[in-house]
Amino acid sequence: MHYVYILRSMKNARRLYIGCAQNLEKRLTDHNRGDGAYTRTFAPWELEAYLAFKDRAVAEDFERYLKSGSGHAFLKRRLVPKL
Q1: Domains observed in the chain
Q2: How far is CA 48 from the centre of its chain?
Q3: Could you report the per-residue pLDDT of 59-79, keeping only the tens digit for each?
């Protein structure tokens, strides 16, 4: 499976990170360990939500959509309303 995930910073609850990975647990561990310039600044992270896809291309397309303007609006309205 391919996962599109949303992380929330435990340092600053208004900070979200959207990513895509096959191994969700390992990727969260990587983010919390400081692997990655953006996520290092706002670590530690907690998993807010994730969606599973069989097809990698579909998962990557959905990740790109969530990072777009209309995707952010959808995210705030439907997936993570407490933002």
Answers
A1: 2-79 (3.40.1440.10)
A2: 8
A3: 999 999 999 999 999 998 988
